[in-house]
Amino acid sequence: MTAVETRPAPTGADDVVDKGRARASDRVRAERRLGWMLAGPAFFVMLAVTLYPILQATYDSLFDYRLTDPDNRSFVGLRNYWVILTDQIWWQAFAVTVLITVVTVVVELVLGFALAMVMHKVLTRLRPFVRAAILIPYAIITVVSAFAWQYAFAIETGFVNTWLGLGNVDWFGEFGTAIVVICLSEIWKTTPFISLLLLAGLAQVPEDMQEAAKVDGATWWERFRRVTVPAMKASIMVALLFRTLDAFRVFDNIFIMTNGAQGTASVSILAYRQTISRVEIGLGSAVSVLLFLSVLLIAIGFIKGFKVDLARGKG
What we know:
By secondary structure, the protein is mainly alpha-helical. It has a domain of 207 residues: MetI-like (MetI-like fold). The chain contains 14 helices and 2 strands; from the N terminus they run H-E-E-H-H-H-H-H-H-H-H-H-H-H-H-H. It has a two-stranded antiparallel sheet. Helix 2 crosses helix 14 and helix 8 runs antiparallel to helix 11. The radius of gyration is 26 Å and the shape is globular. The model has no long low-confidence stretch (mean pLDDT 83).
């Protein structure tokens, strides 16, 4: 005879657990369905608008193609990428882009935290006015703010040298001073964006956790490091991700202030020069594709590094 395996009949507790899991699963599916209904139209519109340029740039990057001589278009495969990656100009532009990105994002994160905490702690009646005042720089068009910063630091029209008592310092005449002005303009313009995202996460930090830590004798820094920051992990990741991707594509400030002179050209400036100034569509498209891949790798690195489930994040 063969032994027949018998299982015990499910108890009432098991039924309750199974029903609870079924309800949770139904709720998750309903939330996902609602999420796609709300975000789906915008997602497909953005996909339709951006997919064609990406595919077209990838296709053009495989050809030796100049607008001044369109009849001599020839397929060269990956040669354009080899030419760019073996050129010192690319690596210099890439290093400048990384430098601007790291400096501005780190400073903006610190200042954004400070502004977010000020906006969070300010009196309820004053919050709208304080938030509006802080967001004014972000509301200004980037080109307009870039011209304003150039005017302020220029030798002929600038007033910064007079205020600081520096004499006739040519801020845009050397790499170091030019990068300082570019970074300052980026920080002034986009710190409100970081603070707004961090403020949304700061509002989700449970007050009872803060009070419990305070009762246990934790200092302000210990509460900030062990309670506030872990609870805001999702918001911090989103703020850093969005701002890093934006900073890595920096173009406007550099184009207005130096036009890439003194070695300040970024990857976006390099793509502009190849595509627009020199009408080298093949090389310019290859630079754009490399820029896109760099941004994509940054996004993947942030998501994998922070290990945040944005579907469950409340910030």
